Structure prediction request, 907 residues.
Amino acid sequence: MATRFQLLGAVEARAGGRVLELGHRRQCAVLAVLLLEANRPVTAGELVNRVWGGRAPQRDRETLYGYLSRLRGALAPAGDARIIRRASGYVLTVEPEAVDVHRFHRLVASARKIDDCLAALEAYEEALALWRGEALPGLDTPWLNDRRDALDRCRREAGLERNELALRCGRQARVLDEMSAAAAAHPLDERLAGQLMLGLYRAGRQGEALDCYRRLRTRLADEVGVDPGEPLRSLHRRILRADPSLAAPVARRVPSQVPAPPSTFTGRAAELARLSELAPGAVGVIVGPGGVGKTWTARRWAHEHRAGYPDGQLFADLRGFDPAGPPVPAAVVIRRFLDALGVAAASVPADPDAQTALYRSLVAGRRMIIVLDNARDSAHAAPLLPGAAGCAVLVTSRHELVGLVTAHGARPVALGTLGDDEARRLLAGHLGGDRVAAEPAAVRALLRHCAGLPLALGIVAARAAVHPGLPLAELAAELEDAATRLDALDGGELAVNVRAALSCSAEALSEGEARLFALLGSAAGEDAGLDAIASLAGLPAAATRGLLRGLTAAHLVAEPRPGRWHMHDLVRLYAAERPGAAPDRPAARRRLLDHYLRTAYAANRALAPLRDPIDPGPVEAPIPSEARATAWFAAEHANLLAAVAAAHDNGLDTHAWQLAWAMATYLDRHAHWRDQAAVHLTAEAAARRLGDRAAQAYALNGLARAEIWLGRYEQARAHLRSALELLDDPAGRAHLHRALARSHARDGDPRQALAHDEQALALYAEAGHRCGQATALNAIGWHHAHLGEQEQALRFCVRALALHRDNGDRPGAAATLDSLGYIHRRRGRHDEALSCYGQAIELFAEIGDRYEMADTLINLGDTHAAAGDPDRARTAWQLAMSVFEELGVPSASLRSRLRPAGNLSAR
Prediction:
């Protein structure tokens, strides 16, 4: 049952002819934002800001999750539009044609590409017919108001383009009424008035055309104090004398220099759309690293938009980064352009400045596309820009061309690498779908090794195409070894060689930039913050930022988010192999790992101040707030995983196990249990190599905790038994018995769990470990509750809560309140259970433990259901499901009434 969404009028959804109930205005605003960003992720923070502006409610995230859950329910009957949660945000997956806004933009873009006048006119009219009133009516926030204004501008621009097309086709009669209505709504729009005058004149209504001019002139004089512009005055004079040229445009020489894009061109829909949004006369700057497809994208756009620029196309390869020779001077290009524009050799001035002036005079007033490919810098391209509006200019470069942006109002469009789907289509375009489908594993490996770089994909595809009998698996095997991957991406010519493409950019770096570039190539992780990169370089933050600015301008690193820098995989390999650029790589790697360890340790102390400490070294970082600590771990998650592996691989074993220790609290609270297992497996190997029995026991405990969460209870118990053989101190052994108890509890054996937690309590008491005693008391109460011994359970958990509060242990108190909620529910004391669960949820939310918060929300929902309040139960369960989806935790059992009432989740 196809769903259709309307935003160009009342916000509405229809499925099978039925209007879906979308809820109140604010809930409709959430849907509107997701529809406007259809198939693109929007973070929860962005949704809150866009839906509420500066007037968000106090519990905005919970309110938002409720709206999203109800919208999912509203859209469920149709089935072809779903709101899903991804790591990067919420995405409404929907066919773009089902949303009138996206259909409107698609039709307008299509109309601009159609050569046939009447067919283009039909496309414009179909697009404008989608409007049924004001866009996004009744939705009033800054972001939505901006989008409404932008849509209105697009509507007006499409209407003006439709009018011009109708006049060109001689179909003015079919748009005269709409032009008249639009002119009445916008009485000072001279372009619209000119169209209406010309339409009336060509329809034989010369008097009305002249009346239209007189009304506009009078209104401009009265309201603005100016006369109509010269173009409109000229049109008025020509109508007065019935100028024949009004019906017959003058023919000109039309150059067509832009080469066709390759037939295998794939993707870049978003970037092409951004270029299409440029106003006539604007300059678009396509920037990106070597081999990313800037030239192909410019050529594709130029060919798609030929119909809108009937006076022709000029193209020049400026060779700004050509390994075969120096850049082409602007004066040489201008001379070639004069030839293309039909200027006889005898008429070309000798003076270069006069040639530039002649070039600009010739293109003034024309609608042309001018592509300036591969500019070295802004000064290289600036002399070739037209002097008047009307032409679309595209400049491509590996540099950011800030000078063109600031001095000429150029609009930058950055090209990144291709996504997997686009990269796969590119390979299939070269090799055919059957060959790609025949070796799916090899294709996945090729895509992974080429990392979305079109040049690399093209080289691989070309090699495979030249040797049709060569299995793709052999090519993938060549690329498997990182040390020789760039050798495999050499097509035998400078133009098809990844290393040569990157060298042109790298050779232009300063000495300091070249050193940092090489160091970044050998650093572990995906992207990095300024402090980490400064530690790697051994430089102050300000000096490091300056070097990064140069690397970013050369597109050798990218800044995908403010303050975070990323290097493409193939660029990283090239940077790592540059000889002599950074002789201090081992020391730099040690500085970076020192930074990560100090900062991670401090961040962990902020999250878990009562946790038994370790000694991370003589220099400690200041302890941040809980919120900053959580944000830092989230940003550095992948880097810290890589840092643990790099520390072990480079013999820095203390760093390896201590980094795992420092990450554990964050990984646990955010349900990253597979990562928890991986880092502690590495930590155990590092500690064993050190001969540090206590560190090895800790690592085995951390590994076991992850195995428990993953349901691998026997493996967990084997690790814990091995750890017990390594330790003599009471507190350490108590921790291990606590973990053994947890494994038995989650495995459905509370009696065995109780025995281990009673041992843990005795050992904690012997060690004087108050936090451990409180935790063990709560766990003992939990086990008694699951054995049906509710009064004993209550006594232990009440003691545990008092001790946790006395210790200032918020996570422990939250867990104990959850236990008490369960005990009260089993005793039939629903009000007391709800109170305990509510307090636990607030504490888990405060400390940022999203998993435990969601788990307790399920318990809260179960209690509401038991108390006969299904609506509140459903709200709690839906919030829990939203959190689980954010964390990537399966929630299938929650969808089918969550889980059985006898929850055996362990304390």
